[in-house]
Amino acid sequence: MKRLWERIVALAGSNFGLKVLALVIAVGLWVAGHRDIERALEVPVEFRNIPSDLMVVDNRIDYVVLRLAGPRTLVSTIDSDDLKLLLDLNGAKSGAASYPLGASSFNIPRGVTVARITPPVMHLRLEPVMQRSLPVSVRLSGKPATGYRIARTIAQPEKVSVSGPADEVRRLATVETLPVDIDEKRGVTKRKVRLSTEGKPLSFMPEQVEVSVTLEEEEASRDFPGVSVRAKDFTGAYSVVPTAISLRLAGAKSVIDTLELKGDEVYLNLKGLPAGEHNLPLTVELPPGLRVVEQKPARVRVRITKPGN
Predict the structure, then answer these.
(1) 158: buried, middle or exposed (CB in 10 Å: 19+, 13-18, 0-12)?
(2) What angle (nearest 5°) sits at the alpha carbon of residue 38, between those of residues 34 and 45?
(3) Angstrom distance (rounded) from CA 202 to CA 163
(4) Separation between Cα atoms, residue 160 and residue 158, nearest integer Å
(5) Reading across the β-sheet that carries 237-241, which strands appear in turn?
(6) Which phi and psi angles does 129 have, rounded to 5°?
(7) What's the number of domains the chain is made of?
(8) Does a structural domain hold residue 124?
(9) CA angle at residue 154 from 148 to 156, to 5 degrees?
(10) Torsion angle of alpha carbons 107, 116, 49, 44, nearest 10°?
(11) What are the residues whose beta carbons fall under 8 Å from the beta carbon of 298, sequence distance 6 or more?
């Protein structure tokens, strides 16, 4: 045994031995590269020639799994995108349809075979397409800043064209936007927002709308009883009945809660009036955003005994 091993080593050291060794290695590599293997690939599905009045629904298969067999040098280099399943729906009718799959459904390289296809049959359902014009409903998320409320919500355009399965489109009354965040917001929020399909096979034209949300301070009302009635910048003599009125004001809560009415804000304007009796309204000058909700009485009786200069 020792002598045989010495002869093999001596042979490998010669030129002839090196050539034989290289040949053996090359043959081994060739055999290894051409040995058959199996490989599973996820192949994407694409529909072609869908009739214009139909659409595919209830198709939950985005890809099929091919199990290929063949020489390693071929199978290992195959790209799943090159095997894309193009399903021709030309001439399809409304309703359920089944399409058996075979090796001919894919662009398989020569020398490679299909061991298995999962699923072996594509089950589809096609429905008529309906198009409607529907109003847009703005969906909001979050809450405005403390003391603010939603005053106005506007979507432009107000209506969009909706296309989809007839049964689905018939059920719709409005189309919702994706949520618009108003959390801790004030003033006006504007942004472009996409429309929500709610997981249904719907399409919109346009695909997004411009949403404007106006957030205003919360309103409050407050009663001001016993407000004195008097003239402003009047140098003559007069008397008034009643001498005090009651006001109810409304407006931004932060303003009305701290408001103090003074003589310069509620007064009688007697300038230019002659002596005698007059039935007059009060002038009420308020900060911006406030308004008079109620005044009792609405008018007062004034007796001017000496006109002003």
Answers:
(1) exposed
(2) 125
(3) 6
(4) 7
(5) 237-241, 299-306, 276-281
(6) -95, 135
(7) 4
(8) no
(9) 150
(10) -80
(11) 281
Which residues are paired to 133 by β-bridges? 161
Predicted local distance difference test score (pLDDT) of residue 188: 92
Q: Is the pLDDT of residue 26 over 50?
A: no
Residue 71 sits in a domain whose CATH number is 2.170.120.30
| Boundary residue ending a domain (217, 251, 280) | 217
Residue 85: which domain range?
34-119
Of 85, 164, 161, 170, the C-alpha closest to 126 is 164
Burial of 120 (0-12, 13-18, 19+ CB in 10 A): exposed
Q: Minimal CA–CA distance to 50: which of 208, 169, 201, 205?
A: 201
Residue with tokens 């093999």: 8
267 and 213 in a common domain = no
- 192-228 tens-digit pLDDT: 999 999 888 899 999 999 999 999 888 899 999 999 9
Q: How far apart are the first and last CA of the chain?
A: 144
Of 4, 1, 73, 9, which is closest to residue 35 (Cα–Cα)?
A: 73
State the number of CA atoms in the 13 A half-sphere of 78 facing the CB: 28
Half-sphere exposure of 13 (CA within 13 A, CB side): 6
Other C-beta atoms within 10 Å of 211: how many? 21
Q: How far apart, in whole angstroms, are the C-alpha atoms of residue 126 and residue 129?
A: 9
